[in-house]
Amino acid sequence: MNGFILIAGTLIPLIGSLFLPLMGRFNEKLRNIMALIFTLAALICAAGALPGVLAGEPYSIRFELPLGLSFGFYGDALAVFMALTAASVSSVIVIYSYGYIHEDNQNEYYMMICLFVGAMMGLVYSTNLIAIYIFWEISALCCWRLIGFYRTELTVQRANKAYMITVFGALIMLIGFVGIYGQTGTFELTAMKGMYIPAWAVVLILFGILSKSATYPLHSWLPDAGVAPSPVTSLLHAAVLVKIGVYAYARFFVLTFKIDEIFTAAVPVIAAISAIISAGVAFRENDIKRVVAYSTISQLAFILLGLSSGTKIGFIGGLLYILAHSVAKGGLFLCCGIVEHTVHTKDIRVMGGLAKNMPFTALAFIICAFSVMGVPPLAGFFAKHLVIDGIVETGNVALGAVFIAAAVMTVMYLTRLFVKVFLGPQTFPDVKEGSPVMVASVMILAVMSLLLGIFIYWPSQLAAIAWGGM
Amino acid sequence: MNYLDLSAEAFLLVPLATIIIYNICPKKLSEKYFYVFAAAVAIIQIIASVSMFYLMNVLHMREHNFIFLKVLGKSGMGSLCITYFSPVFLFCIGLVSFASVMIAMHTIDAKKTHYVNLLMTLITGMNGMILVKDLFSLYVFLEIVGLSSFVMIAMFQSKKGLEGSVKYLVMSEFASIFILTALALIFMQTGSLSYDAVGSFLLDGAASSQKMMIYFSVILLISAFAIKTGAVPFHSWLPDAHQSADTAISVLLSGIVIKIAGVYSLIVLTRLFSGIEAVHVTLATIGILSIVTGALLAAKQNHFKRIIAYSSVSQMGYILLGLSTGTTLGLIGSVAHVFSHAVFKTTLFTNAGALHEHFESLDINEMGGLQSRMPVTAFSSIIAFLSTAGIPPFTGFWSKLLIVMALWTSGNPVMAGAALTASIFTSAYFLRLQKKVFFGPLPDRLSEVKEVTGSIKFIEILLTAVTITVGVLFPMILVYLQNAGTI
């Protein structure tokens, strides 16, 4: 019966979101508060599933269906880890939205955010490939509408681009799922544990994973999605949505299926290419959000590397990286949002000296940036350390070196960004700090980055349990 | 007479009786309340088909044989049959007719009497096709459907309507010739045209000349029914006919007529000639061609109704692919897709009706940013298109998934992969249309546009609710079918 907490964590935001537009018609305040409550409900339910994980008996529930479509919710360590990360960052971002979003379509905005949180919860708890696909596409729909939040020609175009790439990837992935069904007669992951799947199915599924996690060569939609409002960029394109792909990698190829040896060699190489190329591009960009977006692509490669290394230490590092990066990069995008909101431009060449005008934002920005760079004792340091340890442990020192180079580049382009935006002569002497609720949100994320670093023991314990399997 | 028989007889009796009653009524009354008569028939049809579906599943009946108008005499008027998937078709006929009537309330000002009479004939024809048990009766009812459609397209005597109608008429005449020739040939071999006799005719023991005859007639039949379906390469009439008719008529044509006249006949064909491997291969080829060609052509059009008409060509392809498997799962997938397609395509044509109030030409380049002005129309059209593109959790996703699963498990992985990959084209023309019509900036000249009211709005909301509810509850339908022993 404990499995109901997982269903509640999924359905409360999922169904609740449908009522938000109705509430918004009568009372905007109520709608905003309910959006936060639905998101927090997901967080509380995820936390409620923790005891089961720690006791070694994950909560679960199962529904019987014909045609191998039986599905269930299963709150194992990996799922709960992902759910906690996603729901906590989402909650902060919803609070931030109160200060940021003032345009029309607010009903649609809060509905899509909540729907997305519900879909994310459903995705991590599901034990059935088709259920995962359904939630996967719901998240793509939310992404489509949220990128197209402003109704200009450009944003609609970019939203369509993101939709086309991610949905195409997902369709290819679905071919892989149906292929697995053709061989086994079931879509259930729990029934397929330890099963070998052929290389073509892995390649098809990788299409979906790489497109969702914006990894080279299917990454181009992510920087373009920066036209969305900043909380959206933060939630979808840094903190949560892009983690779906790497989560799926961990769930399918690390914890469930046996795959050919070749992939443990090939996927890190793809990750390495993605890390280096996007880090290079991040130097060249002058749009504040595009720099951070390319940085996201680069950091996602680190996560993929850790998960695909096939070592325990790399896997734990990858999971911690998901957590650390969600918090820190979410914070960075929110800081970008504050800057963009106050100076009304995204071009870093015209910015400068903003640290004097907005000291708190600058502080939060630099803490989050340190975490992404991997400066101890922030959470990002431990994660980056373990990931690179993991790949070195497999004996692939060359790849380790490439990723250290990418890490160095991360330090450089984020420093460049910080210097250009916050230091130097003041170009906007009159602008003021962002609204209290926005600054508070970024400070929360910055403090979380710090605390997670200091208390890294607890999340790493959870990640270690996840390695134990499904 | 039990309830099962009563429901079964209603499918033919009600529309026929309505024609008589409607024309007896005083002209003033019948002109003013034309929609009451038509809607009543549609609603009765919906109720009868739902109860039929329920009763047959409860009683674990694979088929229900009955004799039409048995009360009139011992022999009655003919032997009819309802198989386990027929109620879905009958339900779709009722639903789409109902939507058509709701749209007609807004769009049809003249010739209301014609509309009701023709609609009743059309419903009779379509129901007849579903109920009959022999190929010749199928052909007769097919002609009734065809004739009513021609007149309905041309009814308002616009130049475009006449053109579309003639195109459809010419193509259909070919189909008729093909069918009659094929029936004659089959009759020569089997001595009977009833489904039982044709289905049990064994090709293995037949002489080679007999086999040739059968193969030849099967080719003719597939071509004829593919014309009626509007499948590639016989699709050229479909966009013209569907675009030029009044929206209340387009809904019927795209929503249901192509499926009954074309797809249902093909289902009969695949059941009768399931032993011939070539039938499956041909259907699969036509199917995949239709999916890709229809979607690519849809992406080029600028006329709202033309886009969704080409979309019909593309979606018919999926149904044919499902049929090509020859398995029960494939059949269920196809029938499910007939249902999903009936719902979402009707929604889209209703949207066209809503847009038509402000945009006489329905050119999507003239529109833009309408989502803020017409929220209900925009929302229903997005949901309908997502269902078309097979995005979960809407009905279209489940039916496509069943078809793809059937394809793969029946040993056709390449087709399954191609069908899934091709559905990205659906997304492509859908995104293009949404961008031009509902999203993007709102031009000043359109700031006065208002949302439709009344029956069109009602039917948009109703059909969207059906798409969402059935989509979300589809797993329960699967459980229901499992308990009934269908899968």
Task: Compute the number of strand runs of chain A.
Answer: 2
Question: What's the count of strands of chain B?
Answer: 2
Largest sheet of chain A: 2 strands, antiparallel
Helix content of chain A: over 70%
Gyration radius of chain A, to the nearest Å? 21 Å
Radius of gyration of chain B: 22 Å
Share of residues in strands of chain B: under 5%
State the end-to-end CA separation of chain B.
31 Å
Question: How large is the count of helical segments of chain B?
Answer: 19
Give an overview of the whole structure:
The complex is a heterodimer of chains A (470) and B (487). Chain A has helices at residues 4-26, 28-48, 50-54, 77-100, 106-125, 129-147, 153-184, 199-212, 221-224, 230-239, 243-254, 261-284, 288-308, 312-343, 354-357, 359-373, 379-393, 397-422, 436-454, 457-467; strands at residues 60-63, 71-74. Chain A has 470 residues and is mainly alpha-helical. Chain A folds into two domains: 1-259, no CATH class; 262-470, no CATH class. A two-stranded antiparallel ribbon of chain A has the order 1-2. In chain A, strand 1 and strand 2 (71-74) form a beta hairpin. In chain A, helix 2 runs parallel beside helix 5 (106-125) and helix 14 (312-343) packs antiparallel against helix 19. The two termini of chain A are 19 Å apart. The mean pLDDT of chain A is 90. By secondary structure, chain B is an all-alpha fold. Helix content of chain B is 75%, strand content 2%. Chain B is built from 19 helices and two strands. Chain B has a two-stranded antiparallel ribbon. In chain B, helix 3 (34-58) runs antiparallel to helix 4 (86-107). The longest helix of chain B is centred in the middle third of the chain and has 32 residues, at 159-190. Chain B is globular, with a radius of gyration of 22 Å. The mean pLDDT of chain B is 89. The chains are: A mainly alpha (470), B mainly alpha (487). Chain A binds chain B through residues 63-67, 69, 104, 130, 133-134, 137-138, 140-141, 148, 151-153, 156-157, 159-160, 163-164, 167-168, 171-172, 174-175, 178-179, 181-182, 185, and chain B through 329, 369, 371-372, 386, 389, 391-393, 397, 401, 404-405, 408-409, 413, 416-417, 420-421, 423-424, 427-428, 431, 435, 439-442, 475, 478-479, 481-482, 487.
